[in-house]
Amino acid sequence: MKNLNKIPSPKIICLQILILFSLALMAGLGGNFLRSAPLALVQDWSVDAQLTTEDGHTMALGLDQAIAVFNKKSALFIDARDISKFNQGHIKGALNLPWHDVQEQFMAVAPQIDPSDLVITYCDGNTCTLSHDLAFFLKEMGFNVKVMTGGWDAWLNAEMPVESINGDNENV
């Protein structure tokens, strides 16, 4: 009678793990290959890559560029955050078009946007993508749109003019 309590050697265990890993990898890659729209195996996750349009143009706008157009008053800033965050503080003169309510709010905000003007969307910071989604939506609606990278956090850190819904204007 065989000893059922015998533990396999470390070599055997490593070989089994390697075989299981290889089979799982082949199954995953094979499944991805068979998909009608395979997932990219390598992806550029930079903000610029996320904000590149189909025609290869970037919608990313750095803080320095955003400050320059703000100072020239040559762009309209639109806050993609929810109304409560907008009310607490936003870029001076900005409109609020919350991405999560864009379908309901767009018709109220659209008349305030001149199609020939540059529109700059923003949200909380580098990890917030609400402004990205809003920018692509506005681009589809025919507007000239850029996304301020760094968002509200970068604007505050640069001590640029802000205001709150109660009318407090300040340079933080």
Automatic annotation (TrEMBL):
Under the heading Pfam families, the entry gives: Rhodanese
Rhodanese domain: residues covered: 71-164
Give the protein name, as stated in the record: Rhodanese-like domain-containing protein
Keyword list (alphabetical) reads: Membrane, Transmembrane, Transmembrane helix
Q: What SUPFAM superfamilies would the database entry show?
A: Rhodanese/Cell cycle control phosphatase (SSF52821)
Cite the InterPro entries for this sequence.
GlpE_sulfurtransferase (IPR050229), Rhodanese-like_dom (IPR001763), Rhodanese-like_dom_sf (IPR036873)
Residues annotated as transmembrane:
12-34
Entry keyword annotation includes S-adenosyl-L-methionine? no
